[in-house]
Write a structure and sequence with these properties.
With 243 residues, this protein is mainly α. Helices cover 71% and strands 0% of the residues.
Length: 243
């Protein structure tokens, strides 16, 4: 076809027997080999358009039949520079590849940030767990201390109740009574958080409830009376100063 011959008549099967004696057949064989190599290298494909083949031939400086070139132009096909087209496609492919690499890098950076965030959250969670355990331990120690104080107070009250009737009518000496009241106010403040400055405090009820749970009966008013007497012994109180 590139020699201006009808490809349906002038075929390799017809021409090959004359390669050794015909210059045309020799040129036909050389061009055929060149086209085969171009196909092997990917420059040409079995379904390559005529316009692309003509552009490839011009780039390779292979003469083409003028009537063939005119016929392709008459069909309105543009004879493009195949190398330029290849470079344009390759440039677009490189651009897409660069964008893909950029997005991949951004995705990896996001994953790394997410991993670092999870690690920080785990560290904070561990710290909170440790703080919670310490608070529980401190709370348990305080409860145990309060239980000991309640037991001591309960024991003292039981001893007072178990005293002989003759002694009940006998008033306590002032020093002994003051010591007992100091013991009561100290336990009330340290064990129950009693605030002597508060006019309405739940401490009397708390102590009465704890005594009831221990099997000892003492009404809130009695507890409140002893607390009122005991707080007069606190430093700064006029009663304590007069004593």
């Amino acid at each position: 076809m590139s020699f201006g011959k009808d490809p349906r008549v002038v075929t390799w099967a017809v021409v090959s027997p004359y390669v050794s004696i015909s210059p045309f057949a020799k040129a036909f064989e050389a061009r055929r080999d060149l086209i085969h190599r171009a196909g092997f290298m990917g420059e040409l494909k079995p379904q390559t358009p005529p316009s692309t083949i003509i552009a490839w031939a011009e780039q390779k400086k292979i003469p083409m039949a003028a009537e063939l070139v005119d016929a392709v132009k008459a069909l309105g096909n543009r004879i493009a520079d195949w190398k330029t087209l290849y470079d344009e496609v390759a440039a677009r492919a490189d651009g897409l590849k660069a964008e893909l690499n950029k997005e991949r890098a951004a995705h990896v950076a996001t994953l790394n940030d997410h991993t670092a965030f999870i690690s920080r959250m785990r560290t904070e969670r561990d710290k909170l767990d440790e703080t919670y355990k310490k608070l529980i331990s401190v709370g348990d120690e305080r409860i145990a201390h309060q239980k000991v104080q309640i037991q001591d107070l309960t024991k003292r009250i039981a001893e007072l109740k178990a005293a002989p009737p003759a002694n009940e009518a006998k008033p306590l000496h002032t020093r002994e009574r003051d010591s007992l009241l100091k013991l009561i106010i100290g336990m009330a403040i340290g064990g129950y958080g009693f605030n002597p400055q508060t006019t309405r405090s739940p401490t009397a009820k708390d102590i009465a409830d704890d005594l009831a749970r221990a099997g000892l009966s003492l009404d809130q008013d009695t507890v409140r009376k002893y607390l009122a007497e005991a707080k007069e012994l606190l430093p700064g109180d006029e009663t304590e100063q007069n004593r």
